Amino acid sequence: MTTPFDQEPPPECPAHGLGAGGLRRLYGAEAENDPMGVYEKLRAEHGPVAPVLIHGDVPAWLVLGHTENLYMTRTPSLFSRDSRRWARLHDGSIAPDNPLTPVFTWQPMCVFADGAEHERTRSAVTEAIDRIDTRGTRRFINRYSNRLVNDFCEGGLADLVGRFAEHLPMMVMCQILGMPEEYSERLVQAARDMIKGTETAIASNAYVMAALMRLVAARRAAPENDFATRLIQHPAGMTDDEVGQHLRLTLIASYETTANLIANVLRMVLTDPRFRAQLSGGHMTVPEAVEQTLWDEPPFTTILGRWAVCDTELGGQQIKAGDALLVGIAPANVDPVVRPDPHASMMGNRAHMAFSGGAHECPGQDVGRAIAEVGVDALLMRLPDIELAVEEHELRWNSALMSRHLMELPVKFQPQPQQDVTRPPDPAASRRPQPEWEVTMSEPKTGTGSAPVPQQPAPFQAPPQQQPVAYIPAQRRPSAPKRLWQSVSRWWRGY
Ligand code: HEM
């Protein structure tokens, strides 16, 4: 039987988005400029599972259908997380310097494990996450957010990616893991660098690992009530090396994704007329903006991946044992089968694939949501008149196989004085009952609900847990949105 991967390329093929066998590439100019457009072409050409080429023109399958993605992630007996099964690794078709090597090289971590071994290491991570003090963490998120805003609020201008989104998750995660004193610009840069696979990635990885191994040694000697100690003390009996690797995994898995989510939520809040429309109805809140963003701009667009355990069929395609498959998060989220109108509000619906599914589904999703919700909320409270400082079409994105991020988000606002973030949180606030990980939604403060109520500068206090919090500011350029919205929706439709 021949597969799409065996066919020769048509010699006349002019499209640079096509490679061997006329297959579409998920890398290169076309895929990087318009990934959603490529996904939709693939869906039209192949249905819910499409043959594609990834870096180095290595063949793989991209799973586009929502149902097929769920099936794949929930059926580890057919689709393993163990990359050592990849037949292409053994037939010489993947060069040793393939840029995706850091993504697919097997490591002794829960991400690459199946079955009992996955259960052993993952249970340590999930229990450590479950025991995070949610109220205390929300207070830290709020305090760190205000500290970051203090650094730029007096200027009236800021890039929210570089000054806010890229820092907040690292500050919070250093606190959660148990190393708040290690947070620094250098750590932020090193974490980004090692994910990007740049020339300095190895040195950056060594820098991050050294910080984490110092933490492991310190907690082994003197346990504390933090994430690192919980990993060490878990009955899974992790070695120091395993603890260090899982701390690194947690830092990477949480940092890049949550930074992306914050940036994407802020962009939507500032530019997307759907929020304005909702606001005129009065009730689009920050948590709803976060959820809509997880549908429309998930921090991971795809995940490499899963590897077929045996010959099988998925979405009408014949998958061979040892084939690689990508979890198609972004395409699954706009699959017409589950979302016939891609512009419809998904309010109240959390069935997106942003956190994947099955046994490897993200265990930190509530932490990620909380950082984004509390952080964006705190920023909007401090800078209620915030607006984009450039036209939306001037925003620049950086795309890779597995994610797409905003490079800058320049904003302007009325300069505000700094607030005191050193005062201890109000203890009464933590005694009040509150839902876990949930940002309270406010009632509109104006008749139309079209704008947030400006805050008077005041000393910083812990967030009032059952009091109203910020509404998303209304779009402040009444004439611009229509044109901008057209460009956004064109981007989503891919034409
Ligand atoms: C909004 C932010 C986040 C998003 C969108 C996200 C998304 C994901 C996705 C798509 C996966 C891959 C699942 C798969 O292979 O099928 C994953 C795995 C993982 N995430 Fe997250 N994540 C986020 C935040 C976090 C946070 C804050 C933490 C830790 C506190 C975390 C910890 C992990 C871990 C440990 C794994 C590996 C789980 C396993 O393989 O069993 N993530 N995440």
UniProtKB/TrEMBL annotation:
InterPro entries referenced in this protein's UniProt entry, alphabetically: Cyt_P450_B, Cyt_P450_CS, Cyt_P450_sf
Ranges annotated as biased composition (Pro residues): 454-466
Disordered: annotated segments: 411-483
Database matches in CDD domains: CYP_unk
Residue stretches spanning the membrane: none
Gene3D superfamilies xrefs: Cytochrome P450
GO molecular function: heme binding; iron ion binding; monooxygenase activity; oxidoreductase activity, acting on paired donors, with incorporation or reduction of molecular oxygen
Family classification: Belongs to the cytochrome P450 family.
Protein name from the UniProt record: Cytochrome P450
Species whose genome carries this gene: Streptomyces beijiangensis
Lineage, top ranks: Bacteria, Bacillati, Actinomycetota, Actinomycetes, Kitasatosporales
